[in-house]
From TrEMBL:
Domain Folate receptor-like: 22-188
Keywords: Disulfide bond, Signal
Protein's organism: Spheniscus mendiculus (Galapagos penguin)
Signal peptide bounds: 1-17
Cellular-component GO terms for this entry: external side of plasma membrane
Top-level taxonomy: Eukaryota, Metazoa, Chordata, Craniata, Vertebrata
Name listed for the protein in its UniProt record: Riboflavin-binding protein
Domain of life assignment: Eukaryota
GO molecular function annotation: riboflavin binding; riboflavin transmembrane transporter activity; signaling receptor activity
Residue spans crossing the bilayer: none
Length: 238
């Protein structure tokens, strides 16, 4: 049954890719395709918008920089905070679903990707004691002639820069993400996303900005079934 769930994810991914392709970022492919030798971002290995060699930059801890963007301008990220930062980086660079939320004025950007409240709260909790010097990672850095980022302001704890998980998710990457009103029709950057993505990418969801009760109910039902399958799979491997 778990194998069926993975197959469903691959089918959904394939149909989505044909319609949306990939973002136009500097590390993106034109179209998603399998990348079996991913060093990191393995969630997207069956259909990826990034090449496996890109993920080498994320495969070790601590991550110093990704391309020319340094992650350690206020000291190395804690292990827990780094995990969430990698999830966001992997989604933007590698997810074949990201282009569904392509920014209307910037083909390499995303806008209003729905994140689960629990994901944002956990992300904030993981990073709150780390330090940061920019409120918006996309616009607030000072970039030198070589394209490397530098702080314009002093480093302060995440807990002082952002009020809570919602504030962090909805401002850290500009308009890229929003906190969803739903607890199911949203992304958590893990295998559970395969249950939500079917509804998030449906025609009815595209045509309406609101979440219907029937979609929410169907998603919750599928999510519970998926979690039960995972529990059963875990018991069988013990």
């Amino acid at each position: 049954m778990l194998r069926f769930a993975v197959t469903l994810f691959a089918v959904i991914t394939s149909s989505t890719c044909q319609k949306y392709g990939c973002l136009e970022g500097d590390t993106h492919k034109l179209k998603p395709s399998p990348e079996p030798n991913m060093h990191e971002c393995t969630l997207y290995s069956k259909s990826s918008c990034c090449y496996a060699d890109f993920t080498e930059q994320l495969a070790h801890s601590p991550v110093i920089k990704v391309n020319n963007s340094y992650w350690n301008r206020c000291g190395q990220l804690s292990k827990s905070c780094e995990v969430f930062t990698k999830k966001i980086e992997c989604f933007y660079r590698c997810s074949p679903h990201a282009a569904h939320w392509i920014h209307p004025n910037y083909a390499a950007g995303i806008q209003s990707v729905p994140l689960c409240q629990s994901f944002c709260d956990d992300w904030y909790e993981a990073c709150k004691d780390d330090s940061i010097c920019v409120h918006n990672w996309l616009t607030d850095w000072e970039w030198d002639e070589s394209g490397e980022n530098h702080c314009k302001n002093k480093c302060i704890p995440y807990s002082e820069m952002y009020a809570n998980g919602t504030d962090m998710c909805q401002t850290m990457w500009g308009e890229s993400f929003k906190v969803s009103e739903s607890s199911c029709l949203c992304l958590q950057m893990n295998m559970k996303d395969m249950m939500a993505i079917k509804y998030l990418l449906s025609e009815s969801s595209e045509e309406s900005s609101s979440i219907s009760s029937s979609e929410e109910h169907a998603c919750q039902k599928r999510l519970l079934k998926f979690e039960k399958l995972k529990e059963d799979e875990g018991e069988q491997t013990r």
